[in-house]
Structures are given as structure tokens and as C-alpha cells.
Design brief:
Largest sheet: 5 strands, parallel
CATH class of the largest domain: Alpha Beta
CATH superfamily of the largest domain: P-loop containing nucleotide triphosphate hydrolases
Number of domains: 3
Oligomer: single chain
Strand content: 5-15%
């Protein structure tokens, strides 16, 4: 970050003196005589610290702080005044000023103050950079895939992202429901507020209630002090309720109250608390069927399904399988400090043909396993789990017994890296029989 300082003061002699003093500290100094001119410089130059007179020809320097922060939130502002007042000082700090000092009396404080403001500005810039990276990593752009079905799903999610509408994400396990929930949050108006994820199936009914709503000291044995709930933690932002279909009926009634009037009561408390949260829920169940069976409240179903989005399973987006696998290949290669790895054509083909009942989560696990086992620069089919090779046999178009047997033996040999003893064990035949069949079928082992 460049160490640039802007001085805004219509007293040219004072401005020039300050510029010389600050310039001797190796800061690059810009000067402006009016607030309007200062704002113009801020729009074109990377200014870290502004020293602004309070009384300017065209505006009040205290109010100018707000305008500067709109243009460059990371910039720190020091207000200078000939006649300081407590009221102006309070207003300046409330508007976001770094400090408010009197001219002349505080000249010896200028350089240390500018130095501190510069450090704060650098920290501000780093925080904003990290926030932007986080938002970028969690946005819809981070979702891999060019298939029509995933593009349509993303487009639907984009439309609801900038609203406060409750969203219900539907889909099989492992289809990326939390990834979509994060993208909806980080591309919406609440992106700088908390995103809190809760797996409803990971808690007992009693524990889920205390985690969501918090509790007062003495609410139950062991509750020695007040505890904030996750709704409090998510206040102003989004709470993601994964596997909401696992929530019991009593908890569903309490969640309904949150949805209806943004209020709840902590365990052991009598006082109603207000909260401002957006709720995104997810499930792999058919909640309408669950409601008809009496296992899910129908009124809650209607409240959370205002905007439903169904995420496609991986087998419906086959053209995305290899790009997703490539992403995880790079990620896990970096994690285990291996050289760059690539997939051979057979490996990629077998990935594409696999049914992926565990969806993206299963693909991620398969790629991590392959990277760990890889010994050379190319990942080949022998690094895939056994069920992949069995699937190839099951998918064979040939009905001829010898063809099926030949293909199966070849896949097992690939899987065991040519280990005949292990192959014979997996095949359930004697080692001598295996050698005879390899010779008879002309299998290159």
C-alpha cells in the first residue's frame, strides 16, 4: 500500500508547512484547498491518510469525513482546527475520523499521529482485501460447472440472493447445499454480516434448542452463566439450517416464531429477544410428504419454502465431473506438497461413467485418495476404489461370459497394480488358475 497523505486546507502557508514536515518522513504528499478538490484527488489517487481543516471554503471538514469514507473506507482522517470544540470533536469521531486536534498547539503530535493513522489505514486495507477474497471464494463464481442444469440453478439463486426472502435448498446429500447457501449470503446485502451454519441432525433436540436460542444461567444443571445462541451470533446476517427435516416438532414451532416475527426466548428466560436474521434451510427429504405424515409442520414448510431451489445431482451434470475433479486434484496436490499431477484419459472416463451416489462429496473423497496414492505424475485407473472397476464390468455391453471374465480380471489386475496374489484373493480363485486365465485370455499384466 502506498504511503500517500492528502492535506486539505485553504490556508496555503499552513498547508505548505505541513507538506514539508510530512514529506521529510518519506510520505508522498498531495494538497487541496477545498473539500471538492480533495474529494477529486481521493477518486484518482490511493490516499492512506487525510489531514483536513475543519473550516473549509466549500464545506465543513467534520462532515467531509463521511464523504471521504464513502469513497475510500480504508482511509484514515485527522481533523485540524484553529478553535477546537468538544461537540465538533465528538461528531468527527462519530463520523469516522481517526483524531481531532488543534492547530499550532499540537504540531509536535502531527508526525506520530500520521504514523499511527498510516498503520491503521494499512490494517484497514488488509481487512478489506481479506473480506473481498472471502466474498470471491464464497460467491457463485466459485461454483464449478458449465452444464446447463447447474447454470440455470445458479441463475435462480442469484435472483433471490439480494433479497431477505427465506430460501429452501433441496437435493441429495453431497450436492453442495451449504456452498449455495454461502453464495446466496455473500452475494446479498448481508455479505459483511455473519454467516452461521447449523447441522440440525448433529444435535439432540435439547442441545439444538440451547445452541440456537442460548440460555440463562440456571436454566438447567451445568448452566452456570448466560450463553448467547447461534441466532444472536448470526444477528444481521444469515443462519443456514442444514438437514432441517431432522428437527423435532417442538423445535419447529419455536423456529416458526422466529420466521413470523423475528423473536425468540432463551432457555430459562421470560424475556422476548428480537433478532434480524435471514434463514436459509436445506434438506434431502420430501418435506411435503413428511408434513402429510405428521413429522413436519405444514405451516413451517410453507414459511421456509417461499423460494425453493433444487440442486441437481452429479449424474445429471456429467460434463462438470472432470472440471470438478481437476479442481480437487490441484487442491489436494498442493496440500500434500506433491508435484503437479494429471489424469489420464481412462481415469477421466471412469469418473464420468460412475453413478456418483454420494455426489460432489464422494468425488472429493475419491480425488483425495488418488492424490495420496499417486506415485508418478499421472493418475491412472488403478488408483480408483474397487467399486469403480466392478462398475466397469457391470456396464459391459458384452453378454459373452469369456469377455466379461476377461474384462473383470484385467480391471482387478489394474486395481492391484499387477499383484497376482492379491488379485487371486479378490477374485476368489487360486493363484494357478489366475495365471492360466491370464495366459488363455492374453491379458497384458
Amino acid at each position: 500500500m502506498q504511503e500517500n497523505v492528502l492535506i486539505i486546507d485553504d490556508e496555503k502557508k499552513m498547508a505548505s508547512l505541513l507538506a514539508r514536515i510530512i514529506g521529510l518522513e518519506n510520505y508522498t504528499v498531495f494538497q487541496a484547498n477545498t473539500g471538492r478538490e480533495g474529494l477529486r484527488i481521493l477518486k484518482t489517487e490511493e490516499i492512506s491518510v487525510v489531514l483536513s481543516d475543519v473550516k473549509l471554503p466549500d464545506c465543513n471538514g467534520v462532515e467531509l469525513v463521511k464523504e471521504i469514507k464513502k469513497i475510500r473506507p480504508q482511509t484514515e482522517i485527522i481533523n485540524l482546527t484553529a478553535f477546537g470544540s468538544i461537540a465538533d470533536g465528538v461528531t468527527a469521531m462519530r463520523n469516522g475520523a481517526f483524531d481531532y486536534i488543534t492547530k499550532g498547539d499540537d504540531n509536535d503530535k502531527i508526525i506520530p499521529l500520521v504514523s499511527k493513522a498510516m498503520e491503521k489505514a494499512k490494517l484497514n486495507a488488509r481487512v478489506i482485501d481479506l473480506e473481498n477474497r472471502l466474498i470471491g471464494n464464497m460467491s457463485f463464481e466459485s461454483i464449478i460447472g458449465k452444464s446447463r442444469v447447474i447454470r440455470d440453478t445458479i441463475e435462480l439463486a442469484r435472483k433471490v440472493a439480494d433479497t431477505a426472502t427465506t430460501v429452501l435448498l433441496l437435493g441429495e446429500t453431497g450436492t453442495g447445499k451449504e456452498v449455495f447457501a454461502q453464495a446466496i449470503h455473500y452475494e446479498g446485502a448481508r455479505k459483511l454480516k455473519p454467516f452461521v451454519a447449523v447441522n440440525c441432525s448433529g444435535f439432540s433436540s435439547e442441545l439444538l434448542e440451547s445452541e440456537l436460542f442460548g440460555y440463562k444461567a440456571g436454566a438447567f444443571t451445568g448452566a452456570t452463566k448466560d450463553k448467547r445462541g447461534l441466532l444472536d451470533e448470526a444477528n444481521g446476517g444469515t443462519i443456514f439450517l442444514d438437514e432441517i427435516g431432522e428437527m423435532n416438532l417442538d423445535m419447529q414451532a419455536k423456529l416458526l416464531r422466529v420466521l413470523e416475527n423475528q423473536s425468540y426466548i432463551r432457555l430459562g428466560d421470560t424475556q422476548t429477544r428480537q433478532v434480524n436474521v435471514r434463514i436459509i434451510a436445506a434438506t434431502n427429504r420430501d418435506l411435503r410428504t413428511e408434513a402429510e405424515a405428521g413429522r413436519f409442520r405444514l405451516d413451517l414448510f410453507y414459511r421456509i419454502s417461499v423460494f425453493s431451489i433444487e440442486l441437481p445431482p452429479l449424474y445429471r451434470r456429467k460434463e462438470d465431473i472432470v472440471p470438478i475433479a481437476t479442481h480437487y486434484l490441484k487442491e489436494f496436490t498442493a496440500k500434500v506438497n506433491k508435484r503437479n499431477l494429471s489424469m489420464d484419459n481412462d481415469f477421466a472416463r471412469m469418473l464420468t461413467e460412475h453413478p456418483w451416489k454420494g455426489n460432489i462429496r464422494e468425488l472429493k473423497n475419491v480425488m483425495e485418495r488418488a492424490v495420496i496414492l499417486a506415485e508418478g505424475p499421472v493418475i491412472s485407473p488403478n488408483l480408483l476404489p474397487y467399486e469403480f472397476h466392478q462398475q466397469q464390468v457391470n456396464n459391459s455391453d458384452s453378454w459373452n461370459l469369456e469377455d466379461v471374465e476377461k474384462q473383470h480380471i484385467r480391471k482387478v489386475l489394474i486395481y492391484t497394480k499387477g499383484n497376482k496374489t492379491e488379485s487371486s484373493r479378490l477374485l476368489g480363485i487360486g493363484l494357478t488358475t489366475l495365471y492360466r486365465k491370464i495366459e488363455a485370455y492374453g491379458i497384458d499384466s
